[in-house]
Known about the structure:
The chain is mainly β.
Amino acid sequence: MLLKIRPLDTVFFRDGKPFTMGAETWADGIFPPPPSVFYGALRTLWLSEQKDGISPANIEASAKLIISAVYVQIAGNCCFPAPIDVLENKERSQKVSLVEKELVAISNHASTSVLSTADDIEVEAPEPGALIKSADLETYFKGGDLSKIGFKQDYFCTESKVGIGLSKETRTSEEGMLYRVGMRRFSDEKTTFIVETSGLDLPQKGILRLGGEAKLAEFEQVGANTYSLPKTPPLEKGLNIYFSTPAVFENGWLPSWVDPQTLKGKWEGLSFQLSTAAVGRSVPMGGFDMKGRRPKRMFRAVPAGSVYRFKVLEGKVETLAQRCNISDFDLDKQGFGSAFLF
């Protein structure tokens, strides 16, 4: 099932960073939002349609929801997070791909991955949240001309909202509690989110609540011909993994099936050796447990756009599916680790 979701107002999606009024004055968020935002919104929507509402049985049944992927549709084009390894020189006239070099990325999963070009090229990363069109991602998968790839960085705008904390006793403003929030709004009314879901019978269209402050968003089911996914070349020699949504691994930036010492691992019955990776700054991911009524465990997620390249030691990569979700802690069912294999 494909859902087109468009906010009707500004929206705010918190990352996992702590924010306390009085201690901090600026609350920034993350955009595009992680798939867990849509997972929670769609489960809440389904629960609101049930006879017994938010009962323990219905909450358990709502967990059948599966999100496979989340994209942004801009002017009819399906867009994806820019691969972290594709950078531009300062004049914005040349692009280079770091993971084409035979290097191993040493990452502490707290800062940009440690990679450098073999040439004397000073490079800069695109703005946070930068996207590329499906056709450009396909060019990247096939090792085509990177200069033809264009970054989309102006598809949303940030609007500041000023607020002030109120006293719980008097409901009047408190001194030192002034804060600002960076709200987001799509720049074009035709820009929407596309969410791939299964597991629950959702309404054909309607209104749901999305993100912080539970802002309203309209949704409707759409056909697969509303957008096109990039085509990946046949898997023949090596294995490359590009993540279009954040991924969560037990070992931080490293997939749990890769040994941290030898960088060798087995997955889907095949043996691999990690040769290169471009992994950006970790993104804290949390949430709220509706059943337990408490905050969920906080994870440090590998950001969307991260790329891993493996050498095949044993087995045939042709047996692998070229689209799947790869994340630990069963978070793949929530849309984390949506990956293209190429």
